[in-house]
Amino acid sequence: MYKQTLYLCLAMEQIKAIKADNQEIFSLVYEEYHRQIYGFIMQRTKSDYIAEEVTQLTFIKFWKQRDILSEQLTIAVQLFGMARQVMIDLLRKEATRFKYEGASAVTPFTDSLVDAIESKDLLRLMEQDIQNMPKMRRLVFELSRKQGLSHKEIANLFSISPKTVEQHIGKALLQLKQHLYSVML
């Protein structure tokens, strides 16, 4: 009981300090709750992109609304409440955007907002994996898949055989496939 009372007093002092524009206390609160908010959102959305966005927007909202923070509620209660509301607002906004952009903006394999968000995360992971490939493999892969050049055209560009181009692309695809398979597990 004593610990709980002490914790509440400390939380109330932190809220008073934040309301008085104390950025140091705000930074401490950010450090203490950042991972927790991120995990809370990640657990519900399964999206790294949304978890990052919501976490940042939550702390921005918390700072902007510091004048109206309640001294009767803990920081955790207020932060998680804001995070939940920010998540709902962001999901609604994204749903509306997809609705008005139409099917052309959504890839064929996405049939819901969550699938679209997961696809964005997957594409970002793939792009990171492509950037981590050996230089020649990456160049050949990007010329083939992003620029649409034929194996023969790429071979002429680098003075290599079309078979070597084929091997680079095969290794690149295998690397992507293995990485994506490990991520999906």
Kindly describe this structure:
There is one protein chain. It is built from eight helices and no strands. The protein has 185 residues and is an all-alpha fold. α2 runs antiparallel to α3, α3 packs across α4 and α7 packs across α8.
State the main characteristics.
single chain; 185 residues; mainly alpha; Rna Polymerase Sigma Factor, Chain: A; Arc Repressor Mutant, subunit A; 2 domains; 0% strand; elongated; RNA_pol_sigma_r2; RNA_pol_sigma70_r4_t2; sigma factor; RNA_pol_sigma-70_dom; transcription
CATH architecture of the largest domain: Orthogonal Bundle
> What is the residue-mean pLDDT, rounded to a whole number?
82
Number of strands: 0
Which overall shape is indicated by the principal axes computed on the Cα atoms?
elongated
Within CATH, the superfamily of the largest domain carries the name RNA polymerase sigma factor, region 2, helix turn helix motif
Helix percent reads over 70%
- Write the element-wise H/E pattern from the N-terminal end onward: HHHHHHHH
Kindly name the structural category.
mainly alpha
Uncertain regions: pLDDT < 50 for 5+ in a row?
A: 103-111
Percent of residues in beta strands?
under 5%
CATH topology of the largest domain: Rna Polymerase Sigma Factor, Chain: A
| Distance from first to last alpha carbon | 44 Å
- Quickly count the domains: 2
